[in-house]
Amino acid sequence: MSDIILPEETLQISRLSLRTGLSALLLAAITATPAFAGAPPKTYKGTPYQDDHRQTSVQSIPGRVECALYDRGGEGVAYHDTESKNLGSGTLNPADGTYLNQFRIDEGVDISYTKFHNAPDRIDDNHYNLVQPPSNQLYVGWTEPGEWFNITVQAARAGVYSADFLYTSNRGGAISVDLNGKPASGPLNIPSTFNAADPVAWRQWHHWNLARAIMKLRLPAGKSVLTIHILKGGNINLAYFDFKQAN
Ligand SMILES: [Ca+2]
Ligand SMILES: [Ca+2]
User: Fold this and answer.
1) What is the CA radius of gyration of the chain?
2) If you measure from the C-alpha of residue 141 to the centroid of ligand 2, how many angstroms do you get, rounded to a whole number?
3) Would the CA dihedral through 59, 65, 66, 68 be positive or negative?
4) What would the pLDDT profile of 141-194 be if each residue is shown by its tens digit?
5) Mean pLDDT taken over the chain
6) Domain extents for the chain?
7) What is the pLDDT of residues 8-20, one digit of tens each?
8) 114-141 pLDDT, tens per residue?
9) Are 51 and 138 in contact (CB under 8 A)?
């Protein structure tokens, strides 16, 4: 039995088809699988947020990851904010000794919380909400493109997790999420929650919405650091990400 001899041209086409097929398969695998990054960078000096009001420090996944509970470590380590003042705690919300009004009052990230039952103009329990947020929910506000903050999380097991995002966005915009120092989510479009029907101008910053399954992340088991970047738009209030296992 003799070997089958194929003309060189046929062989080249076969090699090309094989390569194209493999590339398509690889591309499909890359697009279907979120970027994997195994552990927080060893040089990272930030630490999980902790205070007397909270039983645990590291935020767990699956579960709710609150943005205002970004890591300790300060400007340039745990976050970057465009100015050092906290425009929420101690500014919009007077320093009156209460936990919520003074939450992280000396840090640059601008923090407020949802307020219900404000007469005569309802604030965060208004009729223009797309979803009702929890009351007294801390959130990161006064956001500008280029700002970021880190959150250390603890995943119960390795896997792909999907996140719902509670937010308001006066003008729309985009955010992205890095995992352990590497881009993971790509740009995430944040739909505007502006509603021209609202007669109260300042309340455009208080129309809450839930962006369901805004991203999927492949997390290793144990500790990871998420970096939330404000890419464009600004004027986004970020309350929390609810993570659940997607596979
Ligand atoms: Ca600030
Ligand atoms: Ca800011």
Assistant:
1) 23
2) 7
3) positive
4) 999 999 999 999 999 999 999 999 999 999 999 999 999 999 999 999 999 999
5) 89
6) 6-35, 59-245
7) 444 444 444 444 4
8) 999 999 999 999 999 999 999 999 999 9
9) no
Closest ligand to Cα 144: 2
How does pLDDT run across 100-112, given as a tens digit for each residue? 999 999 999 999 9
Centre of ligand 1 to C-alpha 84, Å, is 5
Enclosing H/E stretch for 32:
helix 8-32
Q: Ligand 2 centre from 144 Cα, in Å?
A: 6
In one-letter notation, the amino acid at residue 67 is C
CB 153 within 8 A of CB 58: yes
Quick one: which ligand is closest to 75's CA? 1
**Distance from the alpha carbon of residue 148 to the mean position of ligand 2, in angstroms:** 9
Question: Is domain 59-245 in CATH 2.60.120.260, yes or no?
Answer: yes
Report every protein residue that has its C-beta within 5 angstroms of ion ligand 1.
Answer: 81, 83, 108, 110
Rounded to the nearest angstrom, the distance between the alpha carbon of 87 and the centre of ligand 1 is: 6
Residues 6+ apart with CB under 8 A from 58: 48, 152, 153, 154, 223
- Cβ–Cβ under 8 Å, residues 61 and 218: no
CA distance 34 to 215: 9
